[in-house]
Write a structure and sequence with these properties.
The complex is a heterodimer of chains A (207) and B (211). Chain A is α+β, with helices and mostly antiparallel strands and 207 residues long. Chain A has 7 helices and 7 strands; from the N terminus they run βββαββααααββαα. Chain B has 2 domains: 48 residues, no CATH class; 161 residues, no CATH class. Classes of the chains: A alpha+beta (207), B alpha+beta (211). Strand 1 of chain A pairs antiparallel with strand 2 of chain B, so a sheet runs across the interface.
């Protein structure tokens, strides 16, 4: 059984380096062992997370409402959006794949933004509600975020592969780049958010 | 205290990466893991021969990645016309089809960053195996950890399957030799990422500096 002292590093004036796991003084803005930039008392974590979150929320709209691909079959061009693609797949009977895309492209990014906003707000309001569950939720959110890139890659593959001149060809739409930007900014928001902040208020009240 | 990896594994203080709980992690035997008692985050694990495993799989992964650029990656045919592309050709197609930034992001995520990650891992393991503090080992190890979330080989692999399901209704598609090579690369990459323990890798590297 692991023994532990029931208080946080911050309460001892210390912080753990997220990269090399060393425990160093909370005052340091750069890890003395590996050189990683530290959150220096974590003052900018929430601010940075909000900045990335707002950027990704703005990108969410062009990503979902602009066409993501233009398909040209025998001279006739069809635009399709992400949701349109899901509906087409569903109607063709590929329901599992339609579900995967719907979850990965539409629900996950939205869910991730909502979860991270909730996290930021609960730090700012010093909430002590369900800290363990929130930490786990953060971990899941941080893990699944990258998988939203599936749609960007699928567009890339379709465009690269389906190039048969006049017979059939696919071109990417602006939504593809907006979508990629949205995934990248939610990832950055997730990295900026420091889950240890959730526990800061808990620590303060213990002492 | 003499375990085969020659690790000192002393009782060191750790701050949980997720809930900041300050913990004294005890010495772990082979196969043992330490979890945070408050939030259950995996703090440390003792896996045998970690640097040898990482070295072997990183070298194999890099070779498979290099091979995957050499042969046809995917094939596509409709109405009697056929098209096969290599990995790099498909990136170039994206550049010419109006969205160079998209091509750049994809190239970064599926080729360049994974390659950089594996080269970094090989470099660090080489330093550990030679018991020599090669120049910049600490910096290289730090950068490999920073790059990791942006390396998306496994996601690309799933994307290929999704793209196939989309295309199959309108045309015939085929997987080339390079696809299988890429699949093996992602498998090797998974071992390199999941097998070693972060804290233990760092302890190894610091031990080199102290020598």
């Amino acid at each position: 059984m692991t023994e532990y002292t029931a208080s946080t590093a911050l309460a001892h004036g210390l912080q753990g380096c997220p990269v090399c796991t060393s425990v160093v003084s909370a005052e340091l803005s750069r890890c003395e062992r590996c050189g990683e930039t530290l959150h220096a008392g974590w003052s900018h974590s929430i601010q940075n997370a909000w900045a990335w979150l707002i950027t990704s929320a703005v990108l969410y709209f062009p990503a979902n409402f602009l066409p993501i691909t233009y398909t040209r079959v025998l001279g006739k061009v069809t635009e399709s959006t992400i949701l349109g693609g899901v509906v087409t797949l569903w109607e063709h009977g590929d329901r599992p794949i339609a579900m995967v895309i719907f979850i990965a492209s539409i629900l996950v990014p939205l869910g991730k933004m909502l979860v991270l906003s909730w996290m930021c707000l609960s730090v700012q309001f010093g909430s002590r509600f369900a800290l363990t569950q929130k930490t786990k939720l953060y971990r899941v959110t941080d893990f699944v975020g990258r998988w939203s890139m599936i749609d960007v890659f699928v567009v890339g593959i379709l465009v690269a592969l389906i190039q048969l001149g006049n017979v059939i060809s696919v071109r990417p739409g602006l939504a593809a780049i907006a979508f990629a930007g949205m995934v990248v900014t939610t990832m950055l928001a997730s990295h900026a958010f420091d889950p240890r902040l959730l526990w800061a208020e808990d620590t303060r009240n213990d002492n | 205290m003499n375990d085969p990896d020659g690790d000192n594994g002393s009782d060191t203080q750790m701050a949980c990466q997720e809930c900041d709980l300050l913990i004294a992690v005890p010495r772990l035997d082979i196969g043992q893991k330490a979890y945070c008692p408050r939030c259950n985050y995996l703090l440390a694990a003792h896996r045998p021969h970690a640097h040898a495993m990482v070295f072997a799989f990183a070298v194999s992964g890099l070779l498979f990645l290099a091979l995957s650029t050499a042969f046809p990656f995917l094939g596509f045919s409709a109405s009697g016309q056929e098209r096969t592309v290599t990995l790099l050709q498909s990136i170039l197609t994206l550049v010419t089809e109006d969205l160079p930034p998209l091509a750049f992001i994809i190239f970064l995520a599926i080729v360049l960053l994974p390659a950089a990650f594996l080269i970094g891992a090989i470099y660090v393991c080489t330093a550990i195996r030679l018991h020599r503090n090669l120049p910049g080992t600490v910096r290289v190890l730090r950068w490999t950890f920073t790059l990791l979330p942006w390396s998306m080989g496994e996601i690309f692999l799933i994307s290929i399957l999704v793209a196939f399901v989309k295309i199959v209704t309108i045309a015939d598609v085929s997987l080339g030799l390079s696809f299988w090579s890429y699949a093996l690369f992602t498998a090797c990459m998974a071992v390199v990422v999941l097998y070693p323990d972060k804290r233990r890798m760092w302890q190894r590297v610091w031990a080199l500096e102290d020598d």
